[in-house]
Amino acid sequence: MEEKTAKESEAIISRVMLPPDANVAGNVFGGTILKMIDEIAGIVAIKHCRKNSVTANIEHIDFIYPVHIGDLLELRGRLNFVGKSSMEVGVEVFAENLETGDINFAGRATVTMVALDGNGKPIEVPKLKLVTDEDKQLYNAGLKRYNERVKRLKVTKRLRKKQA
Ligand SMILES: CC(C)(COP(=O)(O)OP(=O)(O)OC[C@H]1O[C@@H](n2cnc3c(N)ncnc32)[C@H](O)[C@@H]1OP(=O)(O)O)[C@@H](O)C(=O)NCCC(=O)NCCS
Fold it and tell me: Which of 23, 45, 63, 86 is most buried per CB count within 10 Å?
């Protein structure tokens, strides 16, 4: 299968935050942003493999700046790492105050998506072609997290078998 670069599947989505996205004080819910994080991770993964892809894991979520009603939220996603059927997507969140033009880094997350075949089984995806130094750094960090996840999943699967 042909390798693909992270650049080929990069994506950006944006949306103005409205009253249903926020609490009574006007602070946007974490869940609103989480849904957009999930959405962009799916777009990046499907662009990479051109297969249906589902969210297996969301980790390292940091909300570091408050987002309010009226802000324009922009999410940027790119692949960090690709395993056999799994793809780790790094997402960055920016909030723009449309009145002042100020843009703040509002958060980040790491999402693992898994590509599925027509029967809902994991299917192999194109390998990641590493071009830039940033590609290599992100890949190596992603590989470490992948290895940690594999260890943790083994324990989870053992527990599931015990309980069944
Ligand atoms: C994700 C899912 C397809 C994995 O199925 P599985 O039978 O456990 O598959 P495998 O053990 O063969 O693992 C397949 C790949 O997924 C990865 N994976 C599985 N569970 C994972 C998890 N919880 N977090 C991160 N990666 C995971 C594995 O590391 C493996 O990666 P690799 O192919 O790159 O080595 C399955 O757990 C599932 O369908 N989960 C629900 C997904 C969903 O519906 N999400 C939406 C919200 S409910």
Answer: 45
